[in-house]
Write a structure and sequence with these properties.
Porin; 1 helix; 61% strand; globular
Length: 220
């Protein structure tokens, strides 16, 4: 009980803005972190196929208002003795509309200084409480040229609670296509911080390739 009160007191010491994260789904939305805003997304991940727990931390901040763009620095720190990874990324909004019912477009690119990837992003409102996010991209990973596709449907159950379902796939000339499903939930706690949970797996050998993530994000 004392620990819970201490955590709430710590959270209340921050000045939070309205939060909008890319967690916990695999897809990346078109929303750009505003200027003079700092967004920290944290997650504890488990991959059953790799038998690995990891701490994922992504820091995002806006760098331009015309066009709207942001920069991000991410790290995936293994808690099981595996190799750590680091990523530098940027997202740029290429077509924005004040009408939220019209499609929103952006591009995203990142690199770990060995490999790189880039994706086209689309967000489209389906109705007042549902939104579709599509990502189509290319990834250069070691000797593999990989094409990726992600389709996510997000539904707001209340102003603070949302759920999503997602399909993702990877295609390469050198390997068989892979397909997967995941789903999750996000809850905005006061004052404007988010906790989330998601689980999913690749459809081939479903029970052996599952993954889990639990996260906490806040925006300053």
């Amino acid at each position: 009980m004392k620990l819970g009160k201490l955590l709430l007191l710590l959270l209340s010491s921050f000045t939070f803005a309205q939060i909008n994260t890319d967690r916990p789904s695999l897809s990346t939305g078109t929303h750009i972190t505003p200027l003079r805003t700092f967004l920290l997304e944290n997650g504890i991940n488990y991959s059953h196929s790799e038998k690995n727990f990891s701490l994922n931390v992504v820091a995002r901040t806006g760098i331009s208002s015309l066009p709207k763009s942001e920069i991000s620095i991410g790290t995936d720190l293994s808690l099981s003795g595996k190799e750590n990874s680091y990523v530098l990324g940027t997202k740029i909004q290429i077509a924005a509309s004040e009408d939220e019912n019209k499609p929103q477009f952006a591009v995203y690119a990142d690199t770990n200084f060995k490999n790189y990837s880039f994706s086209g992003l689309l967000d489209q409102k389906l109705n007042k409480n549902m939104e579709l996010t599509l990502n189509m991209g290319y990834e250069k990973a070691e000797a593999l040229d990989m094409f990726t596709f992600i389709s996510t449907v997000n539904k707001d159950l209340s102003p603070s609670l949302s759920v999503y379902g997602e399909y993702f796939s990877e295609f390469s000339q050198n390997t068989s296509p892979s397909h997967g499903l995941d789903a999750g939930i996000a809850y905005i706690i006061q004052p404007h911080a988010q906790i989330d949970f998601a689980a999913g797996s690749y459809l081939n050998h479903f029970k052996d390739n599952y993954f889990l993530t639990f996260g906490f994000s806040y925006e300053l």
